[in-house]
Design a protein that fits this description.
two-stranded antiparallel sheet, 186 residues, single chain, mainly beta, 47% strand
Length: 186
Amino acid sequence: MTRMMLAAAVLVGLAASPEPAAAIARGGGVAPDGARPQPVAEAPGGCVVAKAEGPAVIFEPWVREAPPQASAMAAYMTIENVKKAPLKLVGARSPQFAKVEIHEIVTEDGMARMQEVKALTLAPGGKLVLEPGSTHVMLIGPKKPLPAGAPVELTLLWADGGKTLIKTAVRPRDGHGHHDHEHHHH
């Protein structure tokens, strides 16, 4: 009952959200292979609030729009570990992309560059913010162009074998000087 009340509160908050792609997905990190969380309700922008038991709560997942010829896109979100033990994110996948990697920005000799990260560990109760200019999910080789508003499905993979399905949407580029990552990947 508490989870249903939480889902209802999330939907009320989403209805008031100024950004159409903003959503909260309740992650299912213990689903067996092939199992999918069942959607509770559709949120603005094609995002889904999913009902599932799991080790993490995913807040505001989104994908930044890229030009149609882009070789990569990036996904962002906040991940909260709701377990009483550390949680290790070991990868991600999407049926809409040839490859998905977790990337971080590192600075060497005054130059910032991206590099793949094999795993990220969240402390019990800890949060991990994936955001532009920082750690993010790199979506490489889109199978078709994904314009603003297009739905995106992403599955986070945990070290314990669990999976968290996220359904979100492409958000338009903001025009405030943020750059897409596709020019870094050839």
